[in-house]
Write a structure and sequence with these properties.
Blueprint lengths: L6 H7 L8 E5 L4 H16 L8 E6 L5 H15 L7 H8 L2 E5 L7 H16 L5 E5 L6 H10 L10 E5 L7 H14 L5 E3 L7 H11 L13 E9 L8 H26 L8 H14 L7 H5 E7 L1 E3 L2 E3 L17 E7 L9 E7 L6 E8 L19 E7 L3 E9 L7 E9 H5 L7 H11 L8 H19 L6 E5 L6 H8 L9
Parallel strand pairs: 1-2, 1-4, 2-3, 4-5, 5-6, 7-12, 8-17
Antiparallel strand pairs: 7-13, 8-11, 9-10, 11-12, 13-14, 14-15, 15-16
Helix pairs in contact: 2-3, 2-13, 6-7, 7-14, 9-10, 9-14, 10-14
Bound molecules: 6-O-phosphono-beta-D-glucopyranose.
6-O-phosphono-beta-D-glucopyranose (BG6) binds next to loops.
Length: 511
């Protein structure tokens, strides 16, 4: 294949501009819309990746006029965008396409009105009937909205330019995710459905595929013969903020593992897809999830650690206990930290443990995947004990300080033969002269408008991810305080998580 025909290369090089469309944002006055969606759309517009006809129809309970909506969104973009986007001609051009509809989405009548408003806007703005519905609402509203859209004939069908983006959490367990999928697919064909996971929009996460499948040197060693184990760590320094109500219901497994961490696992472990296309990539991810060994029959007791933060200091500032946060029960046993040991039972990964951990109010924010190689098979250098040799590690830094490092042993200069691990380090910032990494939502919103669902989760994939966690959820949802490991805020989590690896003669990488 000539270099220019390489689909990865083409995919990355092409600047793609969306077709005219209306993005209908349900929950337009909410946090997600203000913090993420509007800044991302304003940035796409400033980068001229949206056509002039592009229109947003914000839908919410707040009784705003179009003009009031524009003003509120201008304030949001000024506050939350990484750069100045809320002023000048570029803002004017974008704001001209912002419209608003006040609606009580629980009432069936509003969907007919919505259909009429959309038809009017199509005429005025030239959006040709192309629509993206964005559910930026509490999950309890998903089914009524989807049903309402269906009743009003707004679901249309495949190939009509109508799409729907669904935020996480997608269900709260396997059964509710299956029920939601059924509701969604009654109105929308699967090809119209975009289940969003913002981790897939992160540059470094996409780079994982490029690193693995656009470099020849890696593949021969990316397997059980050479790799000892894999660590996936997503540490956050923040607590749950004002999301106590949501978090009490969710906990760390639903909030971070079911989506972000399992997605990272899939990308590390999957086989090369036959093409860099939505279904080919997702087929391979589903195979990984299906191969994850079940944690049922008590396996979760030895392979899973649950923790909750108590008061401490994070980055030098006092940080309160989870149980003292607003909306949290004072005797809550909701886990804010988890560590899991998973196995992927297939030819490539048999016997290679994948250790996953994530928690809130830890020492600092950092996400990293470390692929730890086996020791060399034979010790050549006399006087060097096996324990003195540090195995090779490839660390993929997802955020911050995005990059990839390879650690290996080197000879210390001098007449005696002594060694020390050293690092070859690639940093996104210096290699590409980037001050800020591109925003994940920008990439994902644009992909959806372009009809590319490669970076979105498919129906069977989301169900397979729930299936992996279901035994642990079942156990933890009914657990008492016994076995809940309290960890001080600002540390790296409970000691039991260290024990999980120590029992296997391993330890977490320092981050
Ligand atoms: C969200 C979770 O999906 O991801 C939050 O609901 C979490 O609890 C966030 O803080 C982390 O995302 P990021 O991009 O900051 O790593």
């Amino acid at each position: 294949m000539a270099p220019d025909e390489n689909p990865l290369r083409l995919g990355m090089r092409r600047e793609r501009i969306a077709e005219p469309c209306i993005m209908v944002i349900f929950g337009a006055s909410g946090d997600l819309s203000r913090r993420k969606l509007m800044p991302a759309l304003a940035s796409l517009s400033a980068r001229r990746l949206l056509p002039p006809e592009f229109t947003v129809l914000g839908v919410g309970r707040t009784s705003w006029s179009d003009e009031q909506f524009r003003q509120a969104m201008q304030e949001a973009v000024a506050e939350f965008a990484d750069r100045e986007l809320a002023a000048g001609d570029q803002w004017k051009a974008f704001a001209g396409g912002l419209m608003y509809q006040c609606a009580d989405l629980g009432s069936a009548d509003v969907y007919g009105e919505l259909a009429r408003r959309l038809a009017d806007l199509d005429r005025i703005r030239g959006t040709g009937g192309n629509r993206v519905f964005y559910l930026a609402m509490p999950p309890s509203m998903y089914a009524p909205i989807i049903g309402g859209l269906g009743e009003a004939g707004l679901g249309s069908g495949p190939g009509t330019g109508t799409r729907i983006i669904i935020e996480k959490p997608f269900g709260r367990d396997l059964a509710s995710a299956q029920a939601l999928n059924r509701d969604v697919n009654r109105v929308f064909d699967e090809s119209q459905v975009y289940r969003i996971d913002h981790y897939l929009g992160k540059e470094t996460v996409q780079n994982l595929l490029v690193f693995r499948f656009a470099n020849a040197f890696l593949e021969p060693t990316w397997n059980r013969q050479f790799i000892d184990h894999v660590q996936i760590s997503v540490a956050e320094d923040i607590g749950i903020g004002d999301r106590g109500g949501y978090y009490e219901e969710a906990g760390v497994l639903r909030d971070m593992f079911q989506n972000h961490l399992l997605q990272l696992l899939c990308l590390v472990a999957m086989e090369a897809p036959v093409a860099f296309e939505a279904d080919a990539v997702r087929d391979e991810k589903v195979k990984v999830l299906r191969a994850v060994r079940s944690l049922d029959a008590g396996a979760h007791r030895v392979h899973a650690v649950r923790g909750q933060y108590v008061a401490g200091q994070v980055l030098g500032r006092p940080a309160g206990a989870y149980r003292d946060a607003g909306g949290v029960h004072p005797a809550s046993v909701t886990p804010t930290y988890a560590a899991l040991k998973l196995h992927v039972d297939n030819w490539r990964w048999q016997g290679v443990p994948f250790y996953l951990r994530s928690g809130k109010q830890l020492a600092r924010k950092t996400s990293e995947i470390s692929v730890v190689y086996r020791q060399v098979p034979h010790l050549l250098f006399g006087g060097v004990a096996r324990a003195d040799l540090v195995p090779n590690v490839i660390s993929l830094r997802i955020q911050p300080d995005e990059g990839i490092a390879l650690s290996f042993e080197a000879k210390r200069p001098g007449t005696s033969l002594r060694m020390r691990p050293v690092e070859m380090d690639f940093s996104y910032g210096s290699a590409f002269g980037l001050l800020e990494m591109p925003n994940a939502y920008e990439r994902l919103l644009l992909d959806c408008m372009l009809g590319d669902s490669t970076l979105f989760t498919r129906r069977d994939e989301v169900e397979a991810a729930w299936r992996v966690l279901q035994p642990v959820l079942d156990a933890w949802d009914h657990a008492t305080e016994e076995g809940l490991e309290f960890y001080e805020s600002g540390t790296w989590g409970p000691a039991a998580a260290d024990d999980l690896l120590r029992a296997d003669g391993r330890r977490w990488r320092r981050m």
